[in-house]
């Protein structure tokens, strides 16, 4: 999911800024979206299924009138795709009303659900966000800082949360720091966002990342930052670096485009190939392919032409639809590879559906050899923190070793980037690498809980 919040005392139209910000965060979720706004006295919310571009009319945006707003684009990992699960969610609490937007996924959802039931509340959605909202609203005491410091201690997993009250914005990042969250300034106010690309779009200036366990309060006279939860490390999701976030965003001081290019360079150092041409699987594989080509001194060529009007194929529900989706999305220029030794670089292999199709399409162009290079390690374990890398059984690398995958894909050679090089390019000491077989930073739910609540 993607979140954006803005508070700008001199304006009345920040819902529009939020709209454009959500546009730039669209890659983080295409299922539903929403904007909440306040003029200081009452909160209005507008939510819709589908893409930002078709979700709001000019008039609807004008009606979302006020100096502060909160927006969300949703990608579901827990909870079904439905309008009820669209965010921001609206909650009543002792002090009035708040709107809530969440990025991440809570691991101890069973426990939270029981706590919510024991308060006499029946949740009306299947999402973990609603549970957090009820627990915060019902256990509200004194102020947000005290409440969040107490209640968030009980949340295990990934949560970047942003609240909009009738007057203020509060943003919290979980103590593990799984999902990104940063803040910036805009005119006489401040903004928070999942990614910096949203700042560029509206012309806001980056100030800082919100650190694990920190809360930021933004109000009419400025902002304050408090460490409300004890930090558990900096387990920023490495998949944000590899695939999920936009390449033009900056995370922990690094432009993701550069990190991805570096993945490609390190991959070339680890697993070089003697070949005639390097091609990428656009768009996500392109920076790494360029890095790979430069380091190997093999020319890079655009071979797969992408249909711009097709969304992320991964999002589609069934295997069959995903397969069809790949053809719809990418079409190769056959002369460029005919008779050549080709290296194809992609950012990740998860289920293997895309990759197998890509290889099949490439062979139809009659190259001499195909070498597959993946600019991330083997995805062997499921993610419980908000990226839909599929359940364990669907993961190619959970049932096959590298030689079996090579055979399955039908390529002359196959190599993945090592975990060590992944960490080196990311540049933080312990990013989360759990889906690549490293330890999970938190406890993980039992199979039974996963089936029931995921
Ligand atoms: P596969 O070969 O496993 O079917 O798909 C790998 C491709 O899916 C890569 O090109 C990757 O960029 C793309 N992809 C699209 N959406 C997602 C997503 O939500 N998560 C991951 N991990 N990869 C995705
Ligand atoms: Fe990211 Fe993988 Fe960790 Fe999930 S398990 S948070 S996808 S690195
Ligand atoms: Mg891709």
Automatic annotation (TrEMBL):
| UniProtKB keywords | 4Fe-4S, Glutamine amidotransferase, Glycosyltransferase, Iron, Iron-sulfur, Magnesium, Metal-binding, Purine biosynthesis, Transferase
Q: Which SUPFAM superfamilies match?
A: N-terminal nucleophile aminohydrolases (Ntn hydrolases), PRTase-like
Q: Which cofactor(s) does the record list?
A: Mg(2+); [4Fe-4S] cluster
Task: Give me the comment on cofactor binding.
Answer: Binds 1 Mg(2+) ion per subunit. Binds 1 [4Fe-4S] cluster per subunit.
EC number of the protein: 2.4.2.14
Output the Gene3D superfamilies linked to this UniProt entry: 3.40.50.2020, Glutamine Phosphoribosylpyrophosphate, subunit 1, domain 1
Q: Which NCBIfam families match?
A: purF
- Which reaction equations make up its catalytic activity? 5-phospho-beta-D-ribosylamine + L-glutamate + diphosphate = 5-phospho-alpha-D-ribose 1-diphosphate + L-glutamine + H2O
Positions contributing to [4Fe-4S] cluster binding: 237, 383, 432, 435
Per the record, the pathway is: Purine metabolism; IMP biosynthesis via de novo pathway; N(1)-(5-phospho-D-ribosyl)glycinamide from 5-phospho-alpha-D-ribose 1-diphosphate: step 1/2
Chain residues that bind Mg(2+): 284, 346-347
MF term (GO), any: magnesium ion binding
- Species annotation: Thermodesulfobium narugense DSM 14796
Identify its protein family. Answer: In the C-terminal section; belongs to the purine/pyrimidine phosphoribosyltransferase family.
What biological-process terms (Gene Ontology) are attached? 'de novo' IMP biosynthetic process; purine nucleobase biosynthetic process
The gene behind this protein is purF
| Entry keyword Transit peptide | no
Q: What is this protein called?
A: Amidophosphoribosyltransferase
Q: What's this chain's function?
A: Catalyzes the formation of phosphoribosylamine from phosphoribosylpyrophosphate (PRPP) and glutamine.
Active site per the UniProt annotation:
1
According to its UniProt record, what is one Pfam family this protein matches? Pribosyltran
What range(s) does the Glutamine amidotransferase type-2 domain occupy? Answer: 1-221
